[in-house]
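Response to reviewer comment R2.3. The reviewers asked that we include at least one raw input/output pair. We reproduce the pair for 2-amino-3-ketobutyrate coenzyme A ligase, mitochondrial here without editing.
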Amino acid sequence: MNSILNKSTKFQNRRWIILRRTMSLLAECITPELKAIEAAGTWKKERVIASPQRTRIVLTNGTQALNFCANNYLGLADNKEVISAAKLALDKYGAGLSSVRFICGTQDIHIELEKKIANFHGREDAILYASCFDANAGLFETLLTPEDTVISDELNHASIIDGIRLCKARRQRYKHRDMIDLENKLQDSMSSRLRLIATDGVFSMDGTVAPLPKILELSKKYNALTFVDDCHATGFFGKAGRGTEDYFNQLGNVDIINSTLGKALGGAAGGYTTSKKELINLLRQRSRPYLFSNSLPPPVVASASKVIDLITNSTEFLDHLKNNTNLFRSNMKAAGFTIAGDNHPICPVMIGDARLATEFADKMIEQGIYVIGFSYPVVPKDKARIRVQISAAHSEKDIEYAVNAFVHIGKELNVIR
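Raw output as returned:
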């Protein structure tokens, strides 16, 4: 018996030695890349928040700051009615389903939310996912075949790019918002069974809007389908907050819309696809992220459902957000800053140098303003910026305080005079 135990011990020791050698080799491969990231000034630090996501937050080190970099556009992440709805759902439906939808993961509130989403967008049906990243991962592979072509804006979100990589369709990229190049790609793919034009509605790093009317015009001319990822538009962009379609008075004209519940619609989690019933039915049968991921937890479903109720018949939050956006953009431009993007709550303050953007953001937190510097590979080289995001929950005093802090640091670092 002792000899058997000794052999077993020796075997386990050899396994640990091999494992340590393997992990050491892994570290040797990774360490130079980590050092290169740090040397380039593009290392991404994670500041830890010890409070709810709201305009005024507290970090674990005790720092208190005004938050100007959340996707909490409507300020509803800590809304009392939304929180109450989530608590009620937690008590009634439990913490989670421990299942995918088609086994035993569908509750009445999931069906109710999908109907609300479809009605909000004026579509026939909708399907929920764990995130919009999953929605984008599940769409293209399910819909498109080797006989099809997908034509994508070159600056589309990473989730669209990754989703397209999963499909077997012919893949083409058109130059960013370049409609001449898009038309050339459409002409080049006339023999395809289906052609799908894919674009972000609002490009998150720049705050710019896709030229949707022209895209729709070209789609009709060449009999192509249209897909819009509207994560940075749903709930707050356009006259009634219906997104990019609403902004351009094109409601109902996009064939497929993917969006998120994790930004303006409560900020918790979740994504969806909304379109014709036939496509949604196909996704329920074939979309891998839907079929193989747990369904959304009941508190998340309930909070998103409550947000849609709050914004469906009122533009109160939307109107406040528009006013705040105009105030910040106009005051920052008057101070001499270059603010990229269209008239959107994403307000990139262009800095250029990656190290300078990081230093600027670090000094802003000392002024009580929480912002983050964005640099390569998140944005192109030499186009580093501080992406400010305005919320309906900000007060005019909050906006003015942030502008004053930008001016102070901007002059200190010679970004403005």
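The CA atoms of residues 288 and 371 lie 36 Å apart. The longest helix spans residues 2-39. Further pairs are available on request from the corresponding author.
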